[in-house]
Design brief:
The protein has 260 residues and is of the alpha+beta class. Helices cover 35% and strands 29% of the residues. A hairpin with a 2-residue loop joins strand 9 (128-130) and strand 10. The chain is globular and about 45 Å long.
């Protein structure tokens, strides 16, 4: 099934990559920063059709809807375009994310960046890969690392602590980055390109696939409060390689006033 799933994702990435600016129609959902485009809907529909053919009993949880499973509880968790605002503006930092979960745990995950033609994937217990080559997190400490973060723009009430933590981590690292696609950021940690990622509120489809890829690459992903991330409800995310994890966790606890 893995090969068929990866083929489906590549096919939909070609749809994204071939989109013309004049063809992209964006609509606001909860506000001007929360967009859905006709391509989000199109890509998700295509993926559901193709994945349903691979695993008919599976349910679907995605940014554009939910369908309950009818068989063993398997659920595909889909973000058809992670980084919709980027996509709608022609800023080419967006991805397709698909995870397969069973019993509340991701067992397979794939993230495709169609603009760099990078396809990341992992199966639980079998390692992580990018375009067929094994990947692993770096061993750089926070002081020699790069931090990526998301601003959770739909929730402006948490902006102050988002940027307070960004400043604290900037003071202890080489630099900070923001791409606008949590899935790409987490895969960047997995591939050893950066060392830490955080965001105070994400949906399961933002991190389900990339979180598994990160873990299989040797990294750590937890909530900012220290617990496991959820595949059913929104969650905060703190992720890092094993070397930078403890320092990032301690700084996060101090800034957010979380008891250890």
């Amino acid at each position: 099934m893995l090969e068929e799933l990866l083929r489906a994702i590549r096919e939909e990435g070609a749809v994204m990559r071939g989109a013309l600016a004049a063809e992209i129609r964006a609509e606001e959902k909860s506000g001007p920063e929360d967009l859905v485009t006709n391509y989000d809907t199109l890509v998700q529909r295509h993926l559901e059709e193709k994945l349903h053919a691979l695993l008919p009993q599976a349910g679907f949880l995605g940014e554009e809807g939910l369908r309950a499973p009818t068989g063993d509880g398997s659920v595909f968790i889909i973000d058809p375009i992670d980084g919709t605002m980027n996509f709608s503006r022609g800023y080419q930092r967006s991805s397709i994310s698909v995870a397969l979960a069973r019993d509340g745990q991701a067992v397979l995950g794939a993230v495709y960046d169609p603009y760099l033609n990078e396809l990341f994937w992992a199966e639980r217990g079998r390692g992580a890969f990018c375009n067929g080559r094994p990947i692993c997190v770096s061993d750089r400490p926070l002081e020699r690392g790069i931090v990526m973060f998301g601003t959770a723009p739909y929730y402006r009430e948490i902006a102050a602590k988002t940027f307070a933590l960004g400043r604290a981590l900037f003071d202890r690292s080489l630099d900070v980055r923001r791409s606008g696609s949590a899935a790409i950021d987490l895969c960047s940690v997995a591939a050893g390109r950066v060392e830490v990622f955080y965001e105070f509120r994400l949906s399961p489809w933002d991190y389900a696939a990339a979180g598994l890829i990160l873990e299989e690459a040797g990294g750590v992903i937890r909530t900012i409060e220290g617990g496991p991330v959820s595949l059913t409800v929104k969650s905060s995310v703190l992720a890092a390689n094993g070397t930078a994890w403890e320092a990032a966790r301690q700084i996060t606890q101090e800034v957010c006033r979380i008891d250890p």
